[in-house]
What does this fold into?
Amino acid sequence: MGVSRRNAVARFFVAALGGGVAWRGAATAAETAAVPKVVYHLADTDKVGFVLGNIENHIKGMGGPDKVRIVLVVHGPALAMFQTRKTNVAIERQVAGFAVDKVGFTACGNTMDAQKISVADLLPGFERANEGGVVRLAKLQAEGYAYLRP
It folds into this structure.
């Protein structure tokens, strides 16, 4: 029993349509998986408020915290601004809000040693980069994070 020309053409279009749907589905999954990743570098105390404002604007500009992955790496003098005993209410509120937005906070282990502080001395949400802040920055860039130092 042979396939008529009409049936062959119909089967071709159905197969092509199915392939197009599968291709579009794969593209959509790839687009969804490609959430931009950004690492902010902060070392200067006079830029703490500015950088936190940039992060807030970045999240809003991207359409929400699920549209971007952000990590803040802090070292040098700026780390003192995130100590619970030295911070201010505005910084504390912003950091708490960013924790909800799943912003990652990393403190340079070398700076922590120099300032004689532990993770327990910092605002909630910080983790220690034992290898150092600049090494952590380089590793994140190698993982595809865009580097920003406002």
Observations:
- Residues 91 and 128 are 19 Å apart (CA to CA).
